[in-house]
């Protein structure tokens, strides 16, 4: 790896720019400027973001979770985001595209984008993020039987969240004076995330999947690991294991905090496409993760 020595003037300027960043940011920036080692980018970006955060948001940044949302979770507003970008540009000595930057939503997004610009690799395609209203416009399930507040659709997997607020109909009588989320509802939430994946993902079938044709077929290897109650936040993920029309098979997981709540080895969905004669998937098996959603009756 070719190296250069940063001039005293550039070193002083860099130190002044990063003086309010946490310890280690400046040293990583100097080493990056001298070696172009892209492995240092996460340290630099994390340090610059932390410099602009309120004290209560800093522990979340260092929690190890890659899908931390810049605006909702860290409280970064649009003007602060521009300050962060300007400082990152100056530090890495790289210029960024404002249109592409508008699509960055998570800490993982911004790190992957910075890395691609620094190494010259293609800009990674960001996972599609959907809020409640867009989810409701896509899924056949509707309130009060819709258990997704937000979701992110990746190439072969999907992630979602659902907050149990305590007013849900299924808590009435389950159980007397002791509200507990039924296991069937947890599986339904995973199924809805899988359905959303089938309806919104691209590349697995040639024609759009018809929402009215997606139905639950079977579920295997289901295990529940904790009792879930009002106030719990379900963090869900489904991964596509195999797909061949008319069947898609997923693996599903729900966690609450750092605890595993429920797991399903296989969730099988039946589906059909807009044009039956051309609805063929490009591959029968998927390497990676993906999600589908099911209708339970």
Describe, in plain words, how this protein is organized in 3D.
- There is one protein chain.
- By secondary structure, the chain is an alpha+beta fold.
- The chain has two domains: 8-119, Non-ribosomal Peptide Synthetase Peptidyl Carrier Protein, Chain A, CATH 1.10.1200; 129-278, Roll (Thiol Ester Dehydrase, Chain A), CATH 3.10.129.
- Helices cover 31% and strands 20% of the residues.
- The chain contains nine helices and seven strands; from the N terminus they run αααααααβαββαββββ.
- It has helices at 8-17, 25-35, 41-51, 58-61, 78-92, 98-101, 107-119, 132-138, 183-200; strands at 128-130, 150-153, 157-163, 215-224, 233-244, 247-256, 259-270.
- Strands 1-2-3-5-6-7-4 form a seven-stranded antiparallel sheet.
- α3 (41-51) runs antiparallel to α5.
- The relative contact order is 0.11.
- Residues 277-285 and 287-297 have low confidence and may be disordered.
